Amino acid sequence: MEKTWIVVADSSHARIFQLRDGQLPAEEIQDLANPLGRADNKQVASDSHGQFAGPDGHGHTAPRVEEPVQHEVHQFARHLARQLDTAAAQQRFQHLALVAAPRFLGLLRDSLDKQTRKLVTAEVDKNVAGLPRSALDACLQELARPRHPH
Fold it and tell me: CA spacing 20 to 30 A to 21: which of 9, 28, 93, 147?
């Protein structure tokens, strides 16, 4: 039995659906939240920029390399990718479809290991993670259609 996992995600929410032999309805097997993905940098920042004294004795401030919210979004993408990598290694699915907000799709793709990336059969750069299940079903139905080579 062929199993396809479809990941529907954005920076603050990810849902994983499973299709068996391309048949709908898809079963939702996981729902992950990243509330900090929608936070304001001021809400996430724990302190100010790093401070240090230079050789002249005057204080200096080191700029942040990455904004706090962006760091949380990267962490969420890596966490999701690790889960997918583990499931792929356990052969829990044979095909993987990614449906994500454009920027998050890139982060997720880059976070997957090479073996998992080989299982990706479709990518859709749309932010539909916040849609209710009934609206998501139309998107899932599109991905469930069999692919015919041209």
Answer: 9
CATH topology (fold) of 3-37+64-144: Nucleotidyltransferase; domain 5 (3.30.420)
Residue 17, beta-bridge partner list: 6, 28
The amino acid at residue 136 is: L
Quote the CA–CA distance of 139 and 41 in Å, as a whole number: 32
The rounded distance, in Å, linking the Cα atoms of 98 and 58 is 50
pLDDT in tens, 18-66: 999 888 888 999 999 976 545 444 444 444 444 555 556 555 554 545 5
Cα–Cα distance for residue pair 80/32, rounded to 1 Å: 8
Angle, vertex CA 89, rays to CA 4 and CA 20, nearest 5: 20
pTM (predicted TM-score): 0.76
